[in-house]
Q: What sequence folds into this?
């Protein structure tokens, strides 16, 4: 009898079908968002949705994830909640490995650099995020980890010129 060592892939075999369903729903959401320029899939209730494009830290493949966001001046703010799961979402791990990336808002593509909000920024932004999407508070209560707040800063095309 062999004992399989737990890995990211086999720790929760019961979640594999749910993960596949989530991947299919995400692919359909992304397709409809791009097809309609964000008219379809560009909002969830009163919250706006963007498409975050990351590069897989292990595979090097481009990944697209629809996410709620909050506009904060020129910056965009994301929440790495993963529904209150005990681990971070893969998109956040990918951003930590390669913080420069791209987002799509409607038909507009913007190059951004990601950073985790410092404690003061998080303290200021968290109530605004919860006002936008109340479930973030529920997710925070559900997990032992502090849910990261991510700030995406747009990169000027003329930067460094």
A:
């Amino acid at each position: 009898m062999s004992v399989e060592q737990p890995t990211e892939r086999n720790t929760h075999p019961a979640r594999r079908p749910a993960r596949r369903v989530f991947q299919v729903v995400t692919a359909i959401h992304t397709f409809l968002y791009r097809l309609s320029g964000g008219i379809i899939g560009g909002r969830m209730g009163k919250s706006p949705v963007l498409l975050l494009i990351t590069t897989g830290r292990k595979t090097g493949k481009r990944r697209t994830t629809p996410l709620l966001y909050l506009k904060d001046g020129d910056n965009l703010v994301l929440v790495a909640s993963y529904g209150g799961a005990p681990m971070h979402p893969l998109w956040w791990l990918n951003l930590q490995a390669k913080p420069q990336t791209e987002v799509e808002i409607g038909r507009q593509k913007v190059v951004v650099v990601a950073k985790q909000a410092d404690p003061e920024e998080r303290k200021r932004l968290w109530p605004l995020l919860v006002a936008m999407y109340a479930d973030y508070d529920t997710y925070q209560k559900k997990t032992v980890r502090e849910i990261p707040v991510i700030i995406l800063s747009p990169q000027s095309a003329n930067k460094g010129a």
Observations:
- The radius of gyration is 17 Å.
